[in-house]
Amino acid sequence: MTAWVLRATVLAALVVALRVLLGFAMASWPTYGTFWRAACLLAIIAVAVVWGVRDGRTGADGLTVRWLAAGFGAGLASSAVCWVLDQVPGIELGDVGILYEMTSAASFILLLVFLPSMAGVAFGHTRSRRSSESAAPAMEPGFATAS
Questions:
Q1: What span, in angstroms and rounded, lies between the C-alpha atoms of 80 and 78?
Q2: Helix 3-28 to helix 63-86 angle, to the nearest 10 degrees?
Q3: Which of 116, 115, 124, 113 has the alpha carbon at shortest distance from 14?
Q4: What is the 8-class DSSP label of residue 147?
Q5: Residues in contact with 7: Cβ distance below 8 Å, sequence separation at least 6, in sequence order
Q6: Sorting pLDDT into bands at 50, 70 and 90, what band is 132?
Q7: d(CA 75, CA 123)
Q8: Sign, Cα dihedral of 82, 88, 93, 97
Q9: How far apart are the C-alpha atoms of 74 and 4, rounded to whole Å?
Q10: pLDDT tens for residues 50-108?
């Protein structure tokens, strides 16, 4: 399985699970909606940042395209699955149409995955460079010779 497909699948499954849990939480405790929404957003962002840091520390090439494709796949897949689940009685995910899910919601998920992962990749790159620079032995100062 290619790297972006794995990332897209895991993140899409996370988004679907969190949206279903958010739907049940909003039905049970509607006054805590802001808390539940923020918790779900932070969970998705945290997973993307941690995975991005891990990728950045490896020093792999093409991470921007890999994460963009993963965000695109996660956005489309999670939106399609959430729309299908919203048609099931007893599961409330917002009663929005397929056009909204496949455009606005998918692009929001794309950005929610792509931007934090790129921040994590940048942080991972800087951390890996620092650790490799500090591990290198310092050069002994040499004396200049006159010729």
A1: 5
A2: 40
A3: 113
A4: -
A5: 51, 66, 67, 70, 74
A6: low
A7: 24
A8: positive
A9: 10
A10: 999 999 998 888 899 999 999 999 999 999 999 999 999 888 888 889 999 999 999 99
Q: Which phi and psi angles does 136 have, rounded to 5°?
A: -75, 135
Tokens at 52, concatenated: 């991005």
Give the C-alpha separation, 50 to 56, whole Å. 10
CA distance 4 to 16: 18
Label residue 75 exposed, middle or buried (CB < 10 Å: 0-12, 13-18, 19+).
buried
3-state helix, strand, coil in the chain (%, to 5): 80, 0, 20
Residue with tokens 């991005």, as numbered in its chain: 52
Q: Tell me which DSSP letter residue 32 carries.
A: G
Query: pLDDT tens-digit profile of 3-24?
Result: 899 999 999 999 999 999 999 9
Asked if residues 47 and 22 have their Cβ atoms less than 8 Å apart, the reply is no
Pick the closest to residue 76 from 6, 16, 1 (CA basis): 16
- The amino acid that residue 21 corresponds to is L
